[in-house]
Amino acid sequence: LSGTPSGPITFTLPTTAQTSGGTFYGRQAANALGSIGFALAGTGVGAFEGRTTTDVAAFLRISEDATFEYDVFDSSKLYPLTGTYGLVGFVGAYEGGDKLQTSYSVPREPGTYAVPLQLVTSIEGQFELTWPTWKNVPEAWSFTLRDLETGTEVDLRTATSYTFDAGITPGITPADEQEG
What is the pTM of this model? Predict the structure, then answer.
């Protein structure tokens, strides 16, 4: 390991390096367990005409090892540094409060679960939510998107998208601003 206060820190791992064990929780393992990926696209209206936004980072993960608490299969949602954004994420409990999550995990066990999915946007506009990624999702499971503003229900297995209008929604405190 080397570096200087004003330069980059570098380290080298030899190609012969090996681990003595452990569990891999990266992308390949998470996809093998089961997941549904969500994407959001938005187009501004009125004062926000011409502005667009896209978010492709929201995943519902299914794992035998998941819990309903924040665990190794969950991850926080990061807010962009741009002034125009539209985000979709799951709301999960974290250290006594709510946190917007990119990845939300549920155990692979029978039951009925309600998982809050929240829109956070800096523009007024029309938005389309899609769920293009389905990997290893149990066939017997059903998924219904329920719009709490309109009461509309969408079967995620038969529909491919849901379009809705929304105003500016600040959402919950971004993960990087929460105390703890």
Answer: 0.77
